[in-house]
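Our collaborator T.R. sent over the components below with a one-line note: 'Predict the complex.' Nothing else. No constraints on interfaces, no templates requested, no preferences about which chain binds where. So this is a plain run: every listed entity goes in together, and whatever single assembly comes back becomes the starting point for the next discussion.
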Amino acid sequence: MIHDIAQAVALVLTWQAVLWITLGYSFGSLLGAIPGLTGIVGIALLLPLSYYLPPWVAIPMLMAISKGSSFGCNIPAILINTPGTPAAAATCLDGHQLALQGRSGKALKANLYAGLIGDTFSDIVLIFSAGLLARVALKFGPAEYASLMVFALTVVGAVSTGAVIKGVMGAALGVLLGVVGMDMITGVSRLTFGVIELGDGIAMIPLMIGLLALSEIFLHAEKLLASRDADQGRVATVPPPRHPDDSRITRDEVPRFARATAIGALIGTVVGALPGIGQSVAAFVGYGEARRFSPNPEAFGRGSIEGVAAPEAAASAVNGANLIPLLALGIPGDVVAAVLLGALMIQGLAPGPLLFEQHRVTVFALYAGMMITNLIHWPVGLVFIRASNLVSRIRLAHMMPVVFILCVAGTFALGNSVFDVYVMIIAGVGGAVLRKGGFAPVTVVIGFILGPLLENSARQALLLSQGSFLTFITRPISLFFLVLTAASIVGSFLYARQRGSAAIPGATTSE
Amino acid sequence: MPPAPRTGALLWALIWLLGAALTYFVLIPAGIEEPSYATQSPGAFPKAIAALIGLLALALFAVEWLRLQPRLDRRVGARFLVTPAIAGLYGLLLVPAGFIVASALSLAAMLFVFGERRPLFGAAIAVVTAVATYAVFVRLLGVPLPAGVLG
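Returned assembly:
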């Protein structure tokens, strides 16, 4: 065993391997920072190249693109409230609030370190317990997934405290938008009204960019027109730091940061080991749980460092944990894992129990490559943070229209479809109108992401139980999540009554 | 004496209630076919969600604390529609005119709306951003964008 590990490390610790992994990580970070583009675009672009590289270089390089993208997509989320991925929408909640307070450096560093810790934690768990966790994940059936989704939806309460009814209404609207398209059980088209482009449903990224980013641009424009004061447009995109502590995590903040990161990393690892859930669920559950366990939950949504650390640690932890079902069982947990499965097959490696016996050194080399990626994450991330400081010097009047163009280019590029651009613009108008009414567009996004997963799992469970709803409470893991959900709702109401906490400003308005 | 309910909040609840009723009674029956072979109705879940929205809208209408919610800042007015209108025109122009031309025009218009009053500077930002974005997406990443009249 030791000999195999030493051999694997020697394979990866070459300048060529480190260079490819560094390039992959930087490329992924750059792509992630462009709204609308994700790591999957980068992986798809470099997949043919991976054919010419040995597996212990190719697979970690592709993984590095995904990890870099996870970090990079949070840069526009924090600085300009434009999430490139669903998971980054959770980071927007507090990250952008921190940026508006002149503490973008603190938010970006919290994002970097939490991601690094979450990633490394899940990689270590992957290395030591791939087999065990894969067995636990196998016990998850549709009923357990449905209950987990119900639990994940309780995050709506966390992002709309003080306006819970409006939060639930927003989430329900998102769920309703999520049912558009083909019904997975019966194959019937739902609410498409003959529009061919809606056959696969409303595209998630255009909807998300419209609701969260474009709506803000529209409201800023209205404000500028209303004031008739060009000087307002001279305001910088994000204010500069006023104190050195605004650009770093202070000693006082370390315990809160560490607790939120630990909660996020743990949740992300468990969620990542479950196929088909992914980073967005992990990020929102991580955010909700960090808030629940925080001694200062009312700070969430107002610029809490914990609100940045928890979702990022959770989303990053999914990266490593996703490989648990992939390597152990050959089940790809998400799109990235599916492409990695293809890359492994290209290399002649068939995932499954035999992989660990027949290609043990290669598997250890993959692990070593992932750890090297985590080491590279830190310096490369700091370079990106330094470069992103330039954004804070650009005037809002110049930045907003440029962001709009990038949103359009990224959205069009997703499916080479102008229909997606229309969806984004309509969602932008809808998001702005919702914000005016005191509704949080992020709750619509949460409902849109989690709703279809909930519906499909619940209906599959009901099919298997021949229509009996008892299946959700007779299965122990499912019951566990439902009890957690009930406890979470009761706890939130009791807490709200006790503390009289106010609505989260960042979640409901563009201010 | 409790404060009088604000008409703005009540109007919002009414809009949601009408939307839910429209979805439940018109859109779902018209937009979801109920196949005879299916053991589960494909419309059941959307109907349940529409009913939930309707009930919540009723609750929103009724609950007293709604009166304490922050004031609606402004009605949807002409000023609000300026940027979405530019965005809509951009969407219409994107394919026929091409990404560079449509982006440069809409970017210049948006910069003006956002308060940039130096025509040459605004035009330079618009053209450089449009060309640079096109170059990054098409040349560097190999992601197609419409070429339009310049193609």
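Summary for T.R.: DSSP finds 24 helices and two strands in chain A.
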